[in-house]
Write a structure and sequence with these properties.
4 strands, 330 residues, Diaminopimelate Epimerase, Chain A, domain 1, 67% helix
Length: 330
Amino acid sequence: MRPLLRLAAAAFVLLLLALAPPARAQGQLIITDPGGRLDRAAIQRAAQPLLDQGALVAIYLVQSGGDNDFVQRLIDDGLASSDGLARNRMIGIYAALDQRYSSVRYGDDWAFALGVNDNYDAIRQANFNPGLAAGDYTRAYTEALGAIQGAVANPPTAGGGTTFNVDLRPVAAVGGGAAVIAAGGVALARRNRARRIRAEAEGKLKDARERAGTLIAALGQRFRNAEEKAQFDRVSYAPEDVQRVGSLQAEARQSFVAVQTRFDEVGERLERFGDKATLEQLAEATSGYTGVAEEAQGVDQRLGAVERLRAELDQQAAQAREEVDRAKKS
């Protein structure tokens, strides 16, 4: 009987160790604010609950930048690997004022709080962006940090709502009952980790798709503007200049159509998988949208060449008119 009791006691201790939250080292706060717009003490206070849980919190407020700049800064600060994959305990909040760009990124440890239902993006829009829009940058970051801490304390559940944290370490029965509970705890941990990994993959996919879609939408508007201007090329420029502008614009338009087609193809492949898409298929779609964004940037450069040529021709035409006016007055 005593050996059985000793085994039961050992199983109980192992169960408590398995279910107890792991000890975390004190976190780290990095604030990058070249313009000196933030109240660092207020940011420190707002971040402290997350730091106490071991979070690596990175705050960036820059004048000009974007997604690539955000990732590079995380890499430079040691918060992401060279391929941009975030460290598990990282929480990054970034804004580039000139581009009106904001972003929230996180590591695997926070996927349960920020990945479910794209909660990170809901916080960005509801808690971060209003302060940025009002020019109250300190409030923007402190409210975003407060919302993130709230999500950590009461994580969202798929489809809505929150899961309130309670003590899940009940006094276990001895013997076989303890072993069953311990096995259940391990299985639960595995399921939670799988959900966190999937939430992160889905978050990266969403970011890549939105970035590609935003670039394409912006290019579409610029092409519409270019085509409206093209109606007046023949009356504004010399025949050889009309040919140059038309040729460059046609090449840019052809590239743009190819980018739109690829964007649609990536989306169609993803739709075929539906909710059953594997992590590999999600990663493939993310890579596809990233490629679309890179191609869209190439189209941006081609269209920029057309716009610069038109600007040069317009300037030459204006100078020619001024010379004619001066000749008439003389």
